[in-house]
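Notes on consecutive records. When two proteins share a document, each keeps its own sequence and its own token line. Never mix them. Below: protein one.
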Amino acid sequence: MVTLTLNPAIDVSSEADEVRHTHKIRTSREELEAGGGGINVARVLTRLGADVRAVFLAGGATGHALDELLARTCVDRRRIEIAGDTRLSLTVMERATGHEYRFVPEGPEVSDSEWSAALEAIAGERCDYLVASGSLPRGVPADFYVRLAKALGGRGVRLVLDTSGEALEAALAHGGLFLIKPSRSELEHFAGTPLPNNDDVIAAARQLVDQGRAEHVAVSLGGEGAIFVSRDGSHFAPALDVPAQSAVGAGDSFVAGMVFGFSRGLPPDEAFRLGMAAGAAAVLTCGSEIARADDVWRLFGGRPADRATT
């Protein structure tokens, strides 16, 4: 497996008694993690036992720090150097209220030669699954993921895409995706109409599958759970009842769980259930920490026997 992250971040998390404007806020329990959509997915997949490589853009002093943080996780990685400084995101949990404050910068501007280098790097990778996850940084064209799909050619790579906005819209218009994970609002934007209930969500997702835009569609409903639609049918799963610590990385963990399930030969509905377990496992962790393997298998009900290779 390979993951691609064009706009990674160093995720900084901490706690404070109270968050107030103007005042100096003293924090504690500071943690730094290598983050960004595809990097988070790669970290979870590695914990679950998959053979995965993280390909990512990074630059400046913060890019070097990100690379070092990722090295500590034992994730196989390939860094593509850029001129701009890799962003730092900040999450602060306010102990007085239990509220979580998340500050996410837009990140560096990427040149044509830099994002083209990412396409070339992916074209040279050998994998069954490619997970492209996260936002597009400034300077990258909205049709980047369409170009990525074309670069993969007829190699049989299953392209998993977790993004939003124009990038998702362009990729869906091109079609041929293996798995997408839009939120309800993102699916509403593409459908051009509100989707107030689960039946409406299922119908909109079913249309994407029937039109060949995506083979599998997993729609996040936030705290309500998620809906999964494929050629085999549709499934709704309520959010697992776990004590929530932080929502950071839950979506990425969900994607990792699903992809791991597919790679091990699980039926689509079981891969979806594994994704739900991984997403819930991430909620159990504090700050920017991602899902832990023991939590994933406990919530899933045990580790499935491998039925395929990655």
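Protein two starts on the next line and is unrelated to protein one.
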Amino acid sequence: MKRKCTDHLRTYNAGILKTEEIFQLSPAMPAMSTSTFVWTCFTDLATRKIIFDFFAKINESLKLTGWIVCNSSHDLDSAEFTLFPDMLPISPLSASNELGHQAGNFWAEDSACMSWLDKQPASSVIYVAFGSFTVFDKTQFQELALDLELTNKPFLWVVHPDLTDGSNEAYPEGFEDRIGCCGRMVGWSPQEKVLRHPSVACFISHCGWNSTTEGLSNGVPFLCWPYFADQLLNETYICDVWKVGLGFQKDENGIITEIKNKVELLLGDKDYMERLILLKERLVSGVRGDGRSNQNFSNFVDWMK
């Protein structure tokens, strides 16, 4: 296993991914594909080489550290921390952040969406957010809008300024008039507070790690729409390891069109929520008192002193 990974990295010194390999770092961890490495999402070989070299330098720097503190938990992937004992999971941080206050954001939050959520029935709202970097073409953007409309459920959709070119003009004709007060689009949201709100039923997410831990910590099931890099592996954990969400399949044109069906499947199966509640309880316990994440953090502070 280690030899194959090393051979692949040597191949990448030329900036070229010649073959796809499926591998596991540990038998207890899900399989990964070399095609999902973060640098492979760039079509330009020179850019791929730059990104690859950047991560290679990071890995070299990590050899100089005493400990690696990370935003994760033994309850999310104990096999990973058995394999890498110098990594200290001290999170999820959002599980101990009862005020839901973040230090900063890429765009100004629309806090008024919280009063809109207050008016919605419990466990009814589809929360849709794809992080800071996801970009949709106009066809997929419009399909997403129409599919949200077809769910006949209230939805809160984060449409940041560059989610798609000319996003303010990209909605299907008449869409905003038809949805009225049943849907709300915002440029950015106070996500931790949104996910903690009792009206939120599920989270259509790009599966970025921060979003993943925030959703888990607040007991919100996922509909997974990963974009690139670690988001693809995070989807595997959500759907296949923790089993607290569902993924989408693209049609023959590379477009996702099955949102209504997947929302109904997810919310109609109580097993997802039962598993999620148990996982949430373990995560919250881990950052309190003698919980493992809390103890790791205390030990790290003592080590620095």
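For the record: The mean pLDDT is 87.
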